[in-house]
Write a structure and sequence with these properties.
alpha/beta; 7 helices; elongated; disordered N terminus
Length: 237
């Protein structure tokens, strides 16, 4: 997707017909009163959220996603909705929401299969990001981190490969593989010299010693990144 200026962190709720948009004019807060009308005629990604504490965080994310889609001609007609299941319990039950945070699509799903995967992985990143940030300074930690932003088309391509890397090491106690959104966490990306995207870094915190940060410079395919990570874990044993 085309590059876009960073979105404003001020969430402004303004009436728009039967829905409320955030600051991107295709990102909406949906309720039982406007849901059916809003999702009837457009391709619509809807994020259902049960946890009130996560609601504002995902409002910011959905605002960012909406602004990026508006900048790309092929996705200008896409809409992004968010439903607070803590307030809209019946609406969430009708739509068979079974998780505290769940993404659903209304429309021609086949047209947006790749974007669906990317959004799901980004949502998962948001849920795990606090844990990852704490591990940046955890003694003994070994991390392999993808630094990315939503508006970067190469990040979207890399994310599909990165998911395979994460799956490969998901049960490995010696390495934590994750990704971080640099739009919301620019200070951490700057710390690891990762302000061009996408960037991968292997980070090792010796029990007694200075933190080691190694820049991955190889191809962005799963096989090469997995091999690099294996060698890096052994190198810093």
């Amino acid at each position: 997707m085309a590059r876009l200026l960073y979105f404003s962190f001020l969430v402004l709720l303004v009436p728009l017909t039967s829905a409320f948009y955030i600051s991107a004019q295709n990102s909406f807060i949906l309720t039982s009163e406007n849901f059916t009308q809003a999702t009837a005629g457009d391709d619509y990604f809807v994020l259902f959220i049960e946890d009130p504490e996560s609601h504002n965080k995902f409002l910011e994310l959905w605002d960012e996603v909406g602004q990026v889609s508006q900048a790309e001609e092929s996705s200008k007609h896409l809409k992004f909705g968010i439903v607070d299941c803590h307030k809209e319990r019946v609406l969430c039950q009708v739509n068979q929401v079974t998780k505290k945070i769940q993404l659903k699509f209304f429309g021609n799903k086949n047209s947006w299969r790749g974007l669906t995967t990317f959004l799901e992985s980004t949502i998962a990143d948001v849920l795990r990001e606090d844990e990852l940030i704490q591990m940046f300074d955890q003694p003994g930690a070994k991390l392999f981190v993808l630094f990315k932003v939503i508006y970067c088309p190469y990040c979207k391509e890399t994310m599909e490969e990165w998911l395979a890397v994460m799956d490969h090491f998901k049960n490995d106690p010696n390495l934590h593989v994750a990704s971080l959104d640099c739009t919301r966490h620019r200070e951490h990306c700057k710390r690891f010299d990762a302000l061009k995207f996408p960037r991968m870094r292997f980070i090792y915190n010796p029990i007694n010693g200075k933190q080691i940060v190694d820049k991955y410079e190889g191809d962005r395919n799963a096989a090469d990144m997995i091999e690099y990570a294996k060698l890096s874990v052994k190198r810093f044993e």
